[in-house]
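Hey team,

Sharing the Metallo-beta-lactamase domain-containing protein run so nobody has to redo it. Sequence (396 residues) first:
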Amino acid sequence: MKDILHFIPHTRFVVDSFVKSPDSVCNISAFFLTHWHYDHYRGLGPTFSYGPIYCSPTTARLLETITCVDPQWLVPKQLNEPFIVDQVKVTFLDANHCPGSVMILFQTGHGNYLHTGDMRFAADWKYSKWKVLNEICLDTVYLDTTYCHKKFSFPSRETTIRHILDKIEQNRHTQPSVHRHTLYVIATYGIGKERILDALVQNGYRMYCGPDKYRIIQCLEYWDSQVMNEYFSTDPSESPIWVVGWNRIAESVPGRLLPNFEVLEEWLHLANNCRATKQRRLDHGTTNCSLPVLQQVVALVPTGWTWRQKNNNNNNNQGEYFHSKANMYVYGIPYSEHSNYEELHRFIAWLKPQQVIPTVMSKGQPKHPFSHLLAETQVKKAFLQKWLSQDPHTRG
Ligand SMILES: [Zn+2]
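Structure output:
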């Protein structure tokens, strides 16, 4: 059953599946990777040697530089430029998820299949970046159903990015002394959430991130080296805005956020130690600069998982989740790189495939999502044609 999610019919291709025994890979002629998130590239590493891996140029750079995959297996392909593998026409389309993420269209001659990987639907891309999908009938869509439940009606990324910026900007303008004494920490994955960091860059904020994260960001080529030098630093004393790893500030589970106040306390301490060391250096020099002691932490966790519609003590009308303890404030902001339920609905209503296969199954999620939107008439027509072409004596 699980392989239905990975094997493309009428081909010897697999998508986002690398955890295989050497025996089981001998039937595979090509591997496809939609994006560089661990749950999709798991199994890849320096020892991989089972065949070509087709992916975007960004994903190929990450695989070679960070995951240490032997570059001889990597076949980077550009968006919207069809290529042929085993007589199958393959096209990469922007998945609107993380840098380098693609949806993959396979036109096999026996059927058209779209694997979305992880994606966020964008209505205005229907006639631009995704226009090829208007021109074909799809047999199957392998759909990112991470948030395929009516309860997930979180807002657009633009809205939540504005909200995150407001958290920092409001302090800066209305409570400048509080702002000067605040450590802001923002949780991100290995990649993903770059749009948030970009909004901070656009608003002139310099950020600190650890050396591993810095290397990954460099690899993305999302910002040029001038922006990298100006807005990102690996020295924690350089900025009170820290970009930190996922699940350090808090663990996010559906509808809830479990904050880790001990870690926040540690970071506040560490930030002040680093600033004190830097201050001593500055005092020995000629600069007349003083670094204020940080007195509070504002932690931002951008994830769709914490989205809740109901207003209650832990949840305001922005759909954010809030916890505090002493001088530490943790916000779960409903920012998501995946489609919400309504967007998934609109995506399938537009494509009208004959079949949808969910690639993410979670509790309470429908097994056959959006079945009322499928190309029912096409299915019926195909069935009737097949039935009519049979010998009348053998018709069932
Ligand atoms: Zn992903």
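Residues 35, 37, 97-98, 118 surround zinc ion (CB under 6 Å).

Ping me if you want the raw files.
A.
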